[in-house]
Amino acid sequence: MVAKGMKAYKGKSQVGLKGEIAVWFSSLGLSLGLLMIVALLGVIAYNGLSVFWPKRVVQVEFDPQPASDLGSRSVVAGIITSQKTKSPDSVEEWRLFVGNKDQYGISFTYFDRGSLLNVTQPEGLLVLERTAYGKAIGYPEHISGPTGKIISAEHPNFAQRLGSLVKECQDRGKEIRKLETREIGAIHEALENLRLHQLRLERQSELSSEDREALERIDEERARYESLFTTLATRARLLRDLQISHKLHYRLASGEEIDLPIGEIHQFFYPNQIGFSGRAAVFWNHIKEFLLSEPREANTEGGVFPAIFGTFVMTLFMCVIVTPFGVLAAIYLCEYAKDGVFVRLVRIAINNLAGVPSIVFGVFGLGFFVYWVGGTLDQLFFSLRLPTPTFGTGGILWASLTLALMTVPVVIVATEEALTAVSPGLRESSMACGASRWQTIQRIVLPASAPGVLTGMILAMARGAGEVAPLMLLGVVKIAPSLPLDDQFPFLHLDRKFMHLGFHIYDLGFQSPDSEAALPMVFATTLLLIVLVVVLNLAAILIRNRLRRKYQMAGF
Amino acid sequence: MEKAVNMDPEWENRAASRRQDPPGRSYISVKDYSFWFGHTQVLQDLNLDMQKGSVTAFIGPSGCGKSTLLRSFNRLNELDPQARHRGDITIEDLSIYDPAVEVISLRKRVGMVFQKSNPFPKSIYENVVYSLRVAGKNNKSILDEVAENSLRSAALWDEVKDRLGESAYSLSVGQMQRLCIARAIANEPEVILMDEPCSALDPIATAKIEELIHDLKIKYTIIIVTHNMQQAARVSDSTAFFYTGNLIEYNKTQEIFLNPQNDKTEAYVSGRSG
Prior knowledge:
CATH superfamily of the domain at 50-77 and 109-269 in chain B: P-loop containing nucleotide triphosphate hydrolases
Low-confidence stretches of chain A: 1-8
Strand content of chain A: 5-15%
CATH class of the largest domain in chain A: Mainly Alpha
Mean pLDDT of chain A: 84
Order of helices and strands of chain B: HEEEHEEHEHHHHHEHEHEEHH
Number of helices of chain B: 12
CATH architecture of the largest domain in chain A: Orthogonal Bundle
CATH topology of the domain at 50-77 and 109-269 in chain B: Rossmann fold
Distance between the termini of chain B: 44 Å
Largest sheet of chain B: 6 strands, mixed
Number of helices of chain A: 15
Structural class of chain B: alpha/beta
Mean pLDDT of chain B: 84
CATH class of the domain at 50-77 and 109-269 in chain B: Alpha Beta
Strand content of chain B: 15-25%
Helix content of chain A: 55-70%
Oligomer: heterodimer
Structural class of chain A: alpha+beta
Order of helices and strands of chain A: HHEEEHEEEEEHHEEEHEEHHHHHHHHH
Number of domains of chain A: 3
Largest interface: A-B, 25 and 30 residues
CATH superfamily of the largest domain in chain A: MetI-like
C-alpha cells in the first residue's frame, strides 16, 4: 500500500520529492534544537527539584578500613546520591551522603555494593538540618534543659516537643536578628551621622560658641547612644544564651554521642517514617526556605532570597533605563534622521555594539561609571565619608546602567523594526489631519508599535538577567548584608552592593569550599534563574499580547 | 462650530470675503505647477482652476501624476525629502506655499481621504475627533458634537452610535472608509481630497460613498482621483484628464465623456488605452 503510493508519487514529479527532503531536513533541525533544549531544561529541572525531596536514609555495615575517611568505623548512615556500575568488573558503586561533617570531616563517601555486609532503613533515624555544618543524621536520645533531662526519645510526644522547642528557638532567632540588624543597626547609623556632623563642624576654620555647644551636645549624644548600644547588646547576648540552654542529645550510627543546642536546628524529620504526604510537606518547606530565606554556610545551605531580589531589582531597573533610551534613539533614527553616511555609520555601530563581549562593558562600567562618575559624586556630595566610597564603588545603580548600555542595541533594533512596520498610510492620514510629526509619532506610531517595543524589552531582559561577567566588576557580592530595596529611608539604596543568581551559581559551583556538596544548590539556583527569566518574559509577553489585541491592524 | 476650529489669522481674514464669492469664480488655482521626485519630473507646467462647491474628477492612466497633484493640495508630498516643485497653487488667492501659512493649518483646511481606509488604532470616537485632539481641543461637549455631526455627514452615525467606544477595526471595510471621511470632515475643512476612495470597496459600499459625495459637495469643494470612468461620470461636475504628467484636457464632465476634444482623452474614456 505504502510502496504503491510512493511509486505513484515518485512518478508524478521530481520537484515534489526535493521539497519533501527539504521539509525533512528542516524538521530535523527543529527537532534536534528542541531536543537539546528540552534535555537541558529536563536535566536542570530534575536535578534542581530533587534537591528538595527528602530521600530515605540507609544504614550500612562494612568491614572497617582504617585508611579511609571514616577511619575505624564500621557502621554509617547516609543518603544514596548515586549508584553507578563501573564497567570492567561490573561492580556497583554507591555514593553515600553521610552528613555529620563536624564528626566525619567529609560529606560523601563511596562503597562497592559487594563490600557492604548489611543495608537497612532503620525507622528511628532522624535528619537534622543545622545552621552550621549542614545536615546531621543520627538517632535521637533525649532533650536536656539547663536543669537536666526533659524528655526521652522513646516518649510518644518526643517529636512534638522537639518541634515546639525548635519553633520557639526560631522565633527567638528572628527577635535576635531584628535586634541586631534593626535596632543596633539604627544606633550605628546614628553614630555615623554624629561622626559626620562632628567632622563637618571641625573642618570649619573658626568655631563659634554655638558650634562648640553643638560639639558638646554631640559628645553627650554619642555617650547616650553608646550606653543604649550596651543595653541592646546585653539583651541580645541573653537571648543568645537562651538559644543554647536546651540541647538535643543524639547518637550517630557509628556510635558518637553529640549534644546539639536546639537553637542550631533549622528543621528535622524522620526520613524513614514519613509517608508521601509527610515528604511532600518537607519538600514544600525546603522550597519555601530556598526561596524566602537568606543563605547560610558560605551560601551552600539555606535560601537565595537576596539573590532573587537582587536579580529582580537589577533587571527591572535596567529595563526602566534602557527602554526610554532605546526607544528615543530608535525614533530619531527611524523618523527624523535623513538617510546618509552618518546614519549608516550609527546603524553599523549599534549592530556591532551588540557583539561586544559583556566583560568589555563591565570594564567600561568600572572605569567610567564607578571610578569616574561615582568618584566625582563622592567628591562632590559625600566628601565627609571619604575614604569610604559611597558611589565610587560597585553598586546596583552602576551594574544596571552598564547592563542597560549593553542591551540598548537590542531595544533600538527591535523598536526600529516595529516603527518601520507601522504603515505609511497611518502616518500620512495623521499628518493629513493636521497633526505634527511628533504628534503623529506620539499618538499613532508609538502605540501601534508598542508590541514591538516590548519585544525589544523582553530580549534585553533575557540578555541582561542572565549576564554575570560584567557584574563581577560592578558590585555583585557573595553575601550582601542588606537588600537594595527596604523599608529604611530612602527605601531604594542604589549605592548598595547586591547578590545575583547568576553570580550565585558561579560562586556555589566553583568558589565554595565543598563544591560537591554545593552541586545540588547549583542546579536549584540555575532552575530558579531560568524560572525567573521566564516569569519576567511571560509578564512582558502577556502585556504585549494585550497591546496587540488593542492595536491589531485590520486584515487587509 | 466654526469657532471651535483653530485657524490661521490669514485664513480667518479671508473667510468673510469667501462667503460673498460669486459662483463660478475660481477657488483653487494651479499655476504653471511642475513637480519632481528627485530627478524624475512627475508633473509638467499644469494650469487648472476649480470652483467652489464643485466636484472635480482627476482621471488618467496609472503613473500620470494625478495622485501627486492631489497630494500637492495639502502638501503631503513634502513628507518625501526628495520632493521639489515649481509654480504655485492658490486656494482663495492665497498661495499654499505662502511662508505665513503653516502647513498644519493648511491641512486643517484641506482634508483628505485615502485609497486604503486606514483608521487609527483607536476607538471610533477617537478616530473622528483626532484632528481636534491634535489641535489641542479637549472640551468634551464640543468633541461629542463634532463626532456626531461628522458621523452623520458621513452617513455612519446610525450604524455606530451605540458602539463609539469600540475599536475602529471592528467596522467593515466600507464603514471604515466612511469613518475616514468623517475624520476628514471633523475639522470643517473647505476642500476634501479623495484618492481613489472606492477602489477597495464592493459596489454597495461604493454606491454609499458616491451618494455621500453628492451630499458633501453642498458644503465642501471636492477633488477626487478615480480609475473608474463611470464613477467620474456619476459624481463629478468637471473632469481633468492627465497623461504622463501633463494635463491633456479639462472640461465639464459631460463634455469630456461625450465630446472629448483630444484623441488621447477619447481613447482613454472609451477604454481603448490606459
